[in-house]
Each structure stands twice: as structure tokens, then as C-alpha cells.
Amino acid sequence: MIQFCEFFLIIQAVFFSALGMSVLGDSRTPSLNAVVRELMNKVQLLNAEAWRNNVEPFPLKPVQSHGQDCSDIRDSFDFDSKTPSGIYIIQPDGTDYPFEVFCEMDYMGGGWTVIQRRIDGNIDFNRAWSEYMDGFGDLSGEHWLGLRKIFHIVNQKNTNFRLQVALESCDDTSAYASYDNFWMEDDSRFFKIHLGRYAGSAGDAFRGYRQEDNQNSMPFSTFDIDNDGCSPFCTINGSAVESCSTKNNKTGWWFNQCGMANLNGGLLEPDSSINSHIQWDTWTQNGMAVTIKSVSMKIRRAYNPYFK
Ligand SMILES: [Ca+2]
């Protein structure tokens, strides 16, 4: 009997305990369900809102370019309105992608696309082939635009470009070298450079004084892609040079047995042992090459309706 009573009590305890749990469960479940339902509704509302925002008010649009190059941008503006210097997006004729460049709109009538600038030594020009090809640096400061982009600009149909090299010395004198009919061959020819007639006050360092210094028609070289005409080596100031790039602080240029120009050379630092620097050795003072503080290389369409 006791056993039965004990058994009954156990059953009763289990039953009520189950019932209690069930009662408790019943009292919790509806509120949890409500919270879950509410959260699910919120998630759905947020999803719908995100979908509307992405798809309806902001449809994907291709990047708009301001023009084909800085000359095109300058010419497409009103004659009377002043186009400011700065960073613009260009898409040269015949290319399928737009990119940014710095346009100089104040220098000599404006319309210049800057392809290289050295002003403060903030950017290291010791770079490999791939970086000289794609470009590096800060467009509003020191930079190399990149061989591929320069090629796309000067390779446009029915255009002809002038290259301007603007130099400034450490004692704040300035000089320039200008070349008409500047163009380059493509990457399969290592961006071989072609320069027309020279004009200017800094001398024609691209061609130099001797045939072996002439960099016109030379392919581009870096420390990892060697087209510099020193094969296996050339003798410069009595020493054997195998790579002009390595000799010049691993910078890239259209070297020819090194030659008299390298505007990508390292900046001259007073205490530096590096003897490489921005080089334009036909600009001389008292028979010595002038020490160069800053330089920029810029290109403009040769046809200019406003400045004939
Ligand atoms: Ca070599």
C-alpha cells in the first residue's frame, strides 16, 4: 500500500511538475514567438528598404569622364570661363576605362596633362617595371602617371602631342625643354619613346651631345627590365655599368648607355651618398650641370585653336 502510495505520489509529482513546466512554457512561448515574429518583420522591412535603396534611387552608372585629356577638357569649356587646375577624370579616345590625371590649366595657356612631377621627395621613384607601367604616387603631389596611361593619351586618333619638361634649380632659376610630336610605342615594344623637334632653354638632354647618349627611340628600362643599351656592360667614367637603372637608384627611364637625362633620378640630399639625382645635364652653369630642385613633365595637344 505504501509502495502504491509512494508510486502514486511520484506519478503525481511528475505529472504536476510536467504540468508546471507546461504551464510555465505556455506562458513564455507566446511572448517569445511574438518577439521572434516582430524581429522577423523588422528584418523583412530592413531588407525591403535596403533593396529599394540599392536598386531604385541609386542605379549603377558608369563613371563619367570630364574629357579625353586635359587639352580636350580645357577646349570643351567656355572660352571666357576659367577652368581650374586640379584632378580630373579622363577617358582617352580608343580606351575602355577612365582614369584620373592632374590638369595644369594655369601654365602657358593650360590644357596640360601632367605625366610626372617631383617637388619634395615624398614619393620614392625606386620602383619595378610593373609600377612604372601602371603609375604611382600622389596625383596632386609627386607622381608618375604610368606608361600605359601616357601611351593611351598620346595614341589617340588625329592628335599630336607636345611634351614639356619644366625644371627649377636649387637657386630658383627655371628652364624648360619642349618637344613637338611626342609619342610612344606600346608595351610589346617597351614603350619606346619618340620625340620631334626640340625648343627651350635647358638644352636637349634627351638627345645629348653624342650619338651614344641619344635616348630618342629608346625603350623604357627599370632595374628588373633592362633595355638600356649596356649589354653586357658599358663603361661610364671609367667604371663598368651593367644596369643604368641600378646605377641611378633603381629608377626607371629611357636610358641609352645611361645618357644625359633621368628626370626620375633620386632627389639630391645634402648628406646622401647616393650620387644619382634628377638629371638634365645639358642645363649647365659655369660648365657644370645645374642642381635641379623640382621638375614636371606635361603633355598637351599640339593643335590649339586659341594659341596659334
Ligand atoms: Ca644593361
UniProtKB/TrEMBL annotation:
Leader sequence residues: 1-20
A cellular component term, taken from the record's GO annotations: extracellular space
Coiled coil: none
PROSITE patterns: FIBRINOGEN_C_1, FIBRINOGEN_C_2
Residues covered by the Fibrinogen C-terminal domain: 61-303
Top-rank taxon: Eukaryota
Key words of the record: Disulfide bond, Signal
Gene3D superfamilies (UniProt xref): Gamma Fibrinogen, chain A, domain 1
PANTHER family hit by this protein: ANGIOPOIETIN-RELATED PROTEIN 5, FIBRINOGEN/TENASCIN/ANGIOPOEITIN
Name recorded for this polypeptide: Angiopoietin-related protein 5
Annotated organism of origin: Acipenser ruthenus
